[in-house]
């Protein structure tokens, strides 16, 4: 079964760290072969009954120095790095961004943005241009929060590489102080009720081709389209207001 379907199953932070270690190990192996995954998300993480986790679906992986299409991108929107949404090429750092998203999903036990109502174009712009990231609970341990935030940093140059992530995860495992924090966190959250996350919009979590010229407004037709949408909405609101005044 894939990780996204397992998110509703409450996992201790100790188990989450183990899952992340497995994912980071696979990602480092991919990067060490000079490859970029380009479509990393929780639906592409396979798990067995022992929580051993593996990255799957390398169908659109490319060599790190291989150019991809310059007219669009392929992937699952909430996991696509902002620089890629802005029309820049994929890099190894672009694979690190979704690792941070997966960290959030594991900690919150639900798919990212599953409780939001963003339309696709708004979500694209907020991630790519405004640095949108999900809410982080105050009780999430600082060491976990720090790595997660670094992974989804807006600047790809500031993200850790897969080897550094793996090293940090191992350090969490052997550091007695961090283990105490993990145990304390698990004790306080073990009885928390997990919301049903099976009702999310599957369209948002489906791999698809997205034109970058539309996203970044490089297309003149796209500019006209968005002005049309904006003023159409404004006209409807204005008409409704005038109708209300005249007849009520």
From TrEMBL:
Claim: Transferase is one of the keywords in the record: yes
Transmembrane annotation, as ranges: 228-247
Gene3D superfamilies: Transferase(Phosphotransferase) domain 1
Key word Heme present: no
UniProt GO molecular function: ATP binding; protein serine/threonine kinase activity
PROSITE patterns cross-referenced by the UniProt entry: PROTEIN_KINASE_DOM (PS50011)
Protein name per Swiss-Prot or TrEMBL: Kinase-like domain-containing protein
